[in-house]
Fold:
Amino acid sequence: MMHMADDKHDVGGAESAPPSILAKAFLVIGAFNERDRVLTLTQISRKTGLPKSTVHRLLQRLGELDVIEEHGAGYRLGIRLLQLVSSMPVDGMREVALPHLAQLQAWSKESVHFGVLRGNEVVVLQALFAVDHARPIGEVGTRIPAHLSAMGRAMMAYLPEDELTELLAGTLVGLTPKSVTDPMQIHDELKRIRVAGAAVQKDGVVLGLGNIAAPVLIKGRPMGAIAVQFDSSKQVSESVINAVKLTAHRISRDTTQMLSQGRGDLFPFDD
Structure:
């Protein structure tokens, strides 16, 4: 299962420099996720690598700011974080997308994801898992190399050439023996994706799993992507591909309508 990197040494800057109070506070906040919604002081200390005394002081201060709340014998993230998250421009699109994602998940009976491109990674912002999914992949906050994921490729196919060149210029890592890391191969695949309007990947991120993805285009730019997960041993369904493309189109349409109602500054790009 993939999760966000636990880069404890990188949070504070150089590895030799001690992490700042702010960096330590973010370590504490970052200890929580979809699986660990309530944690004890001991669990937070273990996950962050910080002494219990430090964690206790940080929890007290974060509690005063309503960022962390007590929950029985443990702690949970506070309501104030929800307020901050809802202030993000991309959350407006996530809210618009949610009913469409729910409809797609109910129809396909498969796990559905919504993600955005950040640097050379896709970050999952919303995940609706299939009820009988034995191993959920792609929890909210998961970061996946863009060149490996279907969502990443669906967005990359619509990037300006200079941005795409920069994204593919670095070292392209692989996660499985079937990961495609050759820039020329990826470039050719992106051309096909732009023609088809959807991306399909099998076994490149996790062996046994594939994804069908389509971009959410806002003002001509790929501001997000949606994906349906499937068993990679099965044949790719044309009906699912069409459903993913239609869902992405509907999200683009409804988000564009939202922007036309006085919220165009959320995505300040020219058509």
Remarks:
- The chain is about 40% helix and 20% strand.
